[in-house]
Amino acid sequence: xxxxxxxxxxxxxxxxxxxxxxxxxxxxxxxxxxxxxxxxxxxxxxxxxxxxxxxxxxxxxxxxxxxxxxxxxxxxxxxxxxxxxxxxxxxxxxxxxxxxxxxxxxxxxxxxxxxxxxxxxxxxxxxxxxxxxxxxxxxxxxxxxxxxxxxxxxxxxxxxxxxxxxxxxxxxxxxxxxxxxxxxxxxxxxxxxxxxxxxxxxxxxxxxxxxxxxxxxxxxxxxxxxxxxxxxxxxxxxxxxxxxxxxxxxxxxxxxxxxxxxxxxxxxxxxxxxxxxxxxxxxxxxxxxxxxxxxxxxxxxxxxxxx
Length: 307
Prior knowledge:
By secondary structure, the protein is of the alpha/beta class. The protein folds into 2 domains: 3-197, Formyl transferase, N-terminal domain (Rossmann fold), CATH 3.40.50.170; 206-296, Methionyl-tRNA Fmet Formyltransferase, Chain A, domain 2 (Roll), CATH 3.10.25. 26% of the residues lie in helices and 24% in strands. It contains 8 helices and 15 strands. The chain has helices at residues 13-21, 47-54, 69-78, 93-96, 119-125, 161-185, 217-226, 290-296; strands at residues 3-7, 28-30, 35-37, 42-44, 60-61, 82-86, 103-107, 130-137, 147-154, 233-237, 240-250, 259-261, 266-269, 274-281, 288-289. Strand 13 and strand 14 form a beta hairpin. The longest helix has 25 residues, at 161-185. The radius of gyration is 22 Å and the shape is elongated.
């Protein structure tokens, strides 16, 4: 079976590696262009390109624009049986219809829940205790195609988006291999998605990170861990933006955003209850545990966050 794999970030690497290990090594890989990355802004390949080269895959496509007709022509010339898409750009029909047996995507939720660019973040922010992965055949409308298979996973009450992301990447790899195997063996049984049950998971913007102190302690806790480590929930202390990465629910009452304790721990009141901020960061500094943070930053009981 001729497989074309498309993906760019670390999330897609386990899927590519699993396909190679399962005997479905892709004929080619499509990924993002080499870009300046990191503090030194050194031009480096994508994680998927590095993994593909390590696996001995020498046909690597790196289009600047997936809607460029030249990219569609390249894909067509490869004559793939299947296109496996994991964390890549939205493809035009001219590209994904080139696969003889179909093109499928791996999505980080149990579709139709959390359609969109940030399903992990939104699931945690909404307090879900379960999520999963879905493979589905591509169609022109995003995240709406017929479901091939799904695999479930739990979300721990203190897990961050980053932790769920890493576990999900491994689960997703299992789903990708199982999907390609079903397509290869002709055993695929799909089912349509229920559009009425769909929920959105749009891209997270900077303003979305603001900590909602007037909400319950549980909602604030979910908000922080749902955006950790990236892009990071944030709140203002005077004119300083503080990023919060880990919290735990705690006892305490006060006006929302009020610091209830800043002596050895950082306790902040919410609309109901309170949260203890466990890990946070000020601009230009390292991420620190609260006790170390408070040793070097002036924050006092009675201060208000978010104003």
